[in-house]
Amino acid sequence: MPRSVNSVASRARRKKVLKMAKGYFGRRKNVWTVAKNAVEKGLVYAYSGRKQKKRNYRALWIMRINAAARLHGMSYSVFMGKVAAKGIELNRKVLADLAMNHPEAFTAVVNTLK
Question: Residue-wise over 70-100: b if at least 16 C-beta within 10 A, else e?
């Protein structure tokens, strides 16, 4: 019995990977073995990048809250401690948005803490 090879599926799989490698430099975009490795590595970076994005945003929010709190004579840790103690249920994302885009609202939050 002759050997059966599903070349349709193989071709489709290779085309899919080469399509994902579009825009890569040199042989990474058109040579199957090189492109396959580059795409696999890229997917690993994409996965970890989705996790890092959350960390980076949280760090950005903390920096913004800290800067705004220091304008009112309070450090970030003291500010967040008072927010938790008062039972204000605003998360860091909302507080950072208030600090950046609505300073008068942030000042009102600070005044309730003092």
Answer: eeeebebeebbebbeeeeeeeebeebbbbbe
Q: Which of 71, 96, 16 lies closest to 83 in space, CA to CA?
A: 96
**Fold type of domain 8-113:** c-terminal domain of poly(a) binding protein (1.10.1900)
| Interatomic CA distance for residues 34 and 30, integer angstroms | 8
* Residue ranges covered by each domain of the chain: 8-113
What is the distance between the alpha carbons of residues 23 and 75, in angstroms, rounded to a whole number? 46
Distance CA 73, CA 40 (A): 49
Read off the pTM. 0.81
Ramachandran assignment for 26, one of left (phi > 0), alpha (psi -120 to 50 degrees), beta (any other): left
Q: Is 74 left (phi over 0), alpha (psi -120 to 50) or beta?
A: beta
Q: pLDDT tens, 53-108?
A: 999 999 999 999 999 999 999 999 999 999 999 999 999 999 999 999 999 999 99
